[in-house]
């Protein structure tokens, strides 16, 4: 559920902009009750902080993988960007 909420937040942010990023918009996009977000996080600010930390972790992991890769530059960047924006590409679950 945590990833589902994070992915929904990314879609709202990219589609509608930062002013539209609310707890209601996230839970609606995720297709779950608003209480789900409240039960899993101390508040919406805590949710946003966890989202940022999660996405930073993803970027760091992809960066390390790129450094260790022996593939071509174009293939490596395509793979990295696809993985980074995977949640946006798949839409609501």
Automatic annotation (TrEMBL):
Keywords: DNA-binding. Transmembrane segments: none annotated. Residues 22-41 bind DNA. It holds the Pfam family TetR_N. This is HTH tetR-type domain-containing protein. Residues 1-59 form the HTH tetR-type domain.
């Amino acid at each position: 559920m945590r990833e589902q909420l994070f992915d929904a937040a990314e879609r709202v942010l990219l589609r509608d902009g930062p002013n539209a990023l609310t707890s209601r918009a996230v839970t609606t996009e995720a297709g779950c009750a608003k209480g789900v977000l409240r039960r899993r996080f101390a508040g919406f600010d805590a949710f946003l902080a966890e989202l940022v930390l999660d996405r930073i972790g993803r970027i760091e992991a992809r960066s390390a993988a790129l450094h260790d890769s022996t593939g071509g530059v174009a293939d490596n960047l395509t793979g990295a960007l696809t993985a980074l924006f995977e949640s946006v590409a798949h839409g609501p679950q």
